[in-house]
Amino acid sequence: MAVTRDIAVIRDLLCRCRHLRGLSLENCDLDNDYETCLAISRNGDLKFLNLALSSGVNAEGVSLIARDCRKMIELNLSWTCLDHKTVNSICQLLPNSLLKLNFAGCRSNTMTDESNLTDSCPNLIELDISDCTEITSKSLKMIAERLTSLQVISASRCYAIEPIAYIHYCKHLVELNVFSTIKDESMPVLKRALKNVLVNRNLFSTIARPTVGIRRSSIWGQKTRDD
């Protein structure tokens, strides 16, 4: 986990690493620095990468990471202000090892990008597309039909998705998070229709984040202290 936002310090540290398994640069400014992304990409065994709220993330750098880190299982790119070119590149290059992906806040995410994503990552079990305002009911249908292993979808504030679409395409899920999307008076109807689905269970995403929960006795699932 980064304890400094100085990109020069981060770059210098990462250039010395080749065997990282988990990396969190949440809320850091990567300053469109190619060398930093190159250093990350040299960690071929990287499994968890959290870039949530990071700025200065560009197509060239993140595509390099996606191309070379082929063992990643969790990736968080939420609220990184990615443009359409970057999203398109990422969706085509992501490894098929990926199981959990957070694209929340990516307002340029389109149905074409989702099509590329389902081709690249057929084994996804969790997908967060909250605040992706270009995602439509057709996009949700395609995601549900192509990603047959999907268990969790978070689509909070995806206003272009019609509420009925969740009933049609999300019955097979374990969990569906649609905060601030469905009117309060309509929520009981949705829950009855999806009686086997946990609706609005988690407000915040834990994808690729190193510590989860209150006790925080592990990092990326690895125990750090005795209970």
Automatic annotation (TrEMBL):
SUPFAM superfamilies: RNI-like. Gene3D superfamilies: Ribonuclease Inhibitor (3.80.10.10). GO terms for cellular component: SCF ubiquitin ligase complex. InterPro entries: Leu-rich_rpt_Cys-con_subtyp (IPR006553), LRR_dom_sf (IPR032675). GO terms for biological process: SCF-dependent proteasomal ubiquitin-dependent protein catabolic process. This is Uncharacterized protein. It comes from Romanomermis culicivorax (Nematode worm).
